[in-house]
Amino acid sequence: MTTTFKSDQQILERVNDLSGKLNGLKSGVGEYIFGQEQVVELTLITLLARGHALLIGVPGLAKTRLVETLGGVLGLDDRRIQFTPDLMPADILGSEILETSENGERYFKFLKGPIFGQLLMADEINRSSPRTQSALLQAMQEETVTIAGETYPLPVPFHVLATQNPIEQEGTYPLPEAQLDRFLMQINIDYPSKDTERRILLETTGNEEVIPSQIMSPEELNDAQHLVREIPVSDKVIEAILKLVRNGRPDTTDNDLVAKYVSWGPGPRASQALVLAARARALLENRLSPSIDDIVALAKPVLQHRMALSYAARAENVGMDDVINSLTSTLE
After folding, report:
1. Percent of the chain as helix, strand, coil, to the nearest 5
2. What's the superkingdom here (predicted)?
3. What is the spatial distance between Cα 320 and Cα 310, in angstroms, rounded to a whole number?
4. C-alpha dihedral over 264, 267, 271, 272, to 10 degrees?
5. Checking DSSP bridges between strand 308-309 and strand 262-264, what pairing results, if any?
6. Number of domains comprising the chain
7. Per residue of the chain (332 residues), what is the pLDDT tens digit?
8. In a domain, 192, yes or no
9. How far apart (Å, rounded) are the C-alpha atoms in residues 271 and 204?
10. How far apart are CA 169 and CA 126, in angstroms?
11. Which CATH number goes with the domain that contains 54?
12. Residue 197 forms part of a structural domain
């Protein structure tokens, strides 16, 4: 049985109404981010699913430019935090200061930190200590911040797009598993092709700086995010998600690679992420409902940071791609 919140016809009409805006959004971002079509698509899927993304790549691959462009085309209040080893939680969340009123009374006033924006870029997040990294946990999960016992709501919509240098580089701290699980997707960014790099050289080294024009408003993005959760999902797709995620766990798998090489697998939040991401991908491609192909396409960015390989996998040169490809091969 397929669960729907509104009639399929009503949903289809809303999907068609949004198709032009979403196509314009992809094209608009593509004008500033060259040769990274899949990265742009996955990031937009993350935003439509009301999630957060972890962008991984060496410095200089336009991760910062991507976030700035998204803030411009979506009209979001974007903020940037440069994570460094000496960054403290209060530098992100804000802090209370002691002030004196005109009549001499003293009181605490809360000064909001940069997290109180709609699009937060956590730049090089793994260069700060685990204590500072964990300051984002409540905000990413509950869209609120608690300071000195007082809870403050964050703006709507609220997204964290964190960039991370490869953990093999010096001066990095691995992100804790609890925080990794809060990211809807891990999006890997590779080096550009030769033709793309030539275009980068020609179009980004002149005097003229082009500012992205706004294509959607935050209110329109919020409406699209609500529509994503109304898109129907068939029982066939739900069963495929359950099969994929449960087979990724060593204790419930019938997959030989997982049983031998995976230390721990994805939790229920991975299943939720796949459902939302598949719905968002269907909306982005102007379809009424997601398919098995969506699950296969999204398996790697949704699962790779929610699983850990064993020492045996490293010793025998078995990578996460090998494991996930083995899992998705049973869905096709």
Report:
1. 50, 15, 35
2. Bacteria
3. 10
4. -150
5. antiparallel
6. 1
7. 344 445 777 777 787 777 778 888 888 887 778 778 888 899 999 999 999 999 988 777 777 888 888 888 898 888 899 988 888 888 888 888 888 777 878 877 888 888 998 999 998 888 888 888 888 888 888 888 888 788 889 998 999 999 887 655 566 777 878 888 899 999 988 887 888 778 777 777 766 666 778 888 899 999 999 999 999 999 999 999 999 999 999 998 888 888 898 898 899 999 999 999 999 999 998 888 899 999 999 999 999 999 988 898 888 888 899 999 999 998 86
8. yes
9. 40
10. 10
11. 3.40.50.300
12. yes
Residue 105 near residue 118 (C-beta atoms within 8 A): no
- Structure-token pair, residue 32: 């500033």
Residue 300 lies in a domain: no
Domain of 122? Answer: 33-217
Q: What is the token pair recorded at 108?
A: 């605490």
- Please, is 187 exposed, middle or buried when counting C-beta atoms within 10 Å of its C-beta (0-12, 13-18, 19+)? buried
